Amino acid sequence: MKAIISAVLILIANPSFGQKKECDCKSEPKMKEYTTDCKTTFLKNGSKLYWQFNCNRVWLTLESAKGRKRVLNEVPVDLSGYTYRLGYQLSKEYKNTLLFRSGCPANGPCNFVLIDKTTGIKLREFGELIYDHSSHNFYDFVLYLYSPNTLIIYYIDTGRKYTIRLNGELKGLIPEYQFSDIIVNQNTLTLIYTTGETKVNLSKYHP
Fold first, then answer.
1. Span 137-207 CATH architecture
2. pTM above threshold 0.70
3. Which superkingdom is the protein from (predicted)?
4. Mean pLDDT per 10-residue run, the chain (207 residues)?
5. Disulfide: which of 74, 126, 133, 150 matches 59 by Cβ 3.0-4.6 Å?
């Protein structure tokens, strides 16, 4: 009996457990239309990921398999209509981490962040990544520019990174947008961009 009472007191004292999702604002019913849905994404480690909103805030919650909740991201209510562009949007789940796209202005670069999917701690920010914007395919590595003629291949699960030289310099305002094709065929990565083409034997760098 004492154990049951203690458990109840813990749940009451810690509001991060046992709360229901909030997805409503009666004074602003249009928020349901243009904010975001509250569907739950179930992760491979048993955690859950979902957006919530009320009349005062819009926020993304990571809930562990044990029910522990952590707010990963918030969007101001006056910008709630832009949640899809400004807030964290899951791009890919990895073994121990989650890759999110966020902070995308109307015609500018986004910011990709890597989050520990157990603790919810932000591990690093990449800025804009090089990827196929039509398919939104992401692999076991990400690509980002180090300089106008050099890019980095960064393997998410191992943390290893490799430097690749490009043919010519990318001098556009947003050089990441100068890539027209990113193709992975078995162990070959093909990059096609405005100044040329580069093929990378991935097995050479990450067997």
1. Beta Barrel (2.40)
2. yes
3. Bacteria
4. 42 46 83 77 96 93 96 93 91 98 89 96 97 92 97 96 94 93 94 95 86
5. 74
